[in-house]
Amino acid sequence: MFSEERLKDLRKILHENPELSFSEHKTASIIKDFVSEVVGKSKLFILHEPFETSVVVEYKGGDPDDPHVIFRADMDALPVKENSLNHYVSGNEGIMHACGHDIHMTVLCGLVAKVAEDTPSKNILFVFQPGEEGAGGAKKMMESGFFDKYNVKSAFALHVTDDLEFGEVGSNGDVLFAIPKEIDVVFKGNSGHAAYPEKGNDALAAASSFLANVEHKIRKVINPTEIFLMHFGKISGGTARNIIADEVKIEGTLRSFDRNIMSLASEEIKNTAENTAKNFGCRSEVTVLGEYLEVRNDPDLFNMLKKVCDDIDIKCIEKKAGLVGEDFCYFTDRYSGLLFWIGTRMPGQEEKQLHSETFFPLDEVVPEGVKILFSLLTLQ
After folding, report:
1. Is residue 136 very low, low, confident or very high in pLDDT (cuts 50, 70, 90)?
2. pLDDT band at 281 (very low <50, low <70, confident <90, very high)
3. Tell me, what's the pLDDT at 291?
4. What is the Cα–Cα distance from 345 to 315, expressed in whole angstroms?
5. Half-sphere exposure of 239 (CA within 13 A, CB side)
6. Which residues contact residue 34 at a Cβ distance below 8 angstroms, ignoring those fewer than 6 apart?
7. How far is CA 84 from CA 28, 351, 361, in A?
8. Active site residue ranges
9. Residue 17, pLDDT score
10. How far apart are CA 346 and CA 340, in angstroms?
11. Can you give the pLDDT at residue 2?
12. Average pLDDT for 16-45
């Protein structure tokens, strides 16, 4: 039976047992135990495990030929040491649900419980997805072939944020999240004594020249009216102050709302690295560590969200796209989809940032999330 107190207990258990991407074994077990508890012996529910740590609960309440609606929650945590002042804290040292995925999973479990109680005439896939934090879990789920046998009408997901107050949601009917691309640029030279620079090839000098010039090169190929962000946040290499560095690695991130812009910029970064390396007698390697697509919402589904919020007296704000990334993009790339923010900041409270040790949404957001998702379901 649907119970807010039971959901509070579930959220506490999930928060205290965070696991990193593709290691969500206990998390998956907690979810499966909860689902088994709330659905009992109902033959309308089928439990699937497309691959290790992923969980999909299928609900067959509609006609066999009716399409399915997807509701997705991400499962993984982050390598963040939790603030001990939070209401309850992680039991796994150095790992924390600092992005609110414990809330996302609890909301989706609450939706399962609500559906088990009300038994609507719908076909639903409740998707608990591992590996969202840069690991490409959604892409892996798509590539598993699991969804190929289903006719999916629409896909929904929510994400908590302190940027909005409790009682507010934010989304739009276009691009909501950007394309993030993580890259490493490595320069390889030849080491030697600093007193004999003519006998070596300085990878650190090449890396410094690259950093000084790449922004200018990018602006030569991308229209300045287009949004493109490039940031290199870490550089490492060399062995000692009086030795010519033979290898230097620069770690960066790229952000755009447009796939063509991302492609143009990526190619120019590669060309700039190659040309810079040659100027210093070095070699370069550009490695892409991870890349998502943009999250593009369906405008009709956004209008549906606005109607739902109006009906249940929740403020719906039309949000501009942000330069953050989300691998729900692989769902919206394949299906009509909607991702929306749900506010967690209580009145008078200071805003807490996602991925920080103090980000701890209160349990009160869970029933609100369940209410919104169930209302969206009834309109499908």
Report:
1. confident
2. very high
3. 86
4. 14
5. 12
6. 10, 109, 112
7. 25, 18, 15
8. 74, 133
9. 98
10. 19
11. 67
12. 97
| Token couple for 344 | 């967690």
Q: How far apart are CA 297 and CA 309, in angstroms?
A: 17
Separation of alpha carbons 28 and 16, rounded Å: 14
Residue among 38, 35, 351 at smallest CA distance from 166: 351
> Can you give the C-alpha Rg of the chain in angstroms?
24
Over 90: is that where the pLDDT of 290 sits? no
Token duo for residue 22? 């593709």
- Identity of the residue numbered 266: S
Give the chain's domains with CATH numbers.
4-176+294-378 (3.40.630.10), 179-291 (3.30.70.360)
CA dist 361 and 344 (Å) reads: 6
Which pLDDT belongs to residue 1?
56
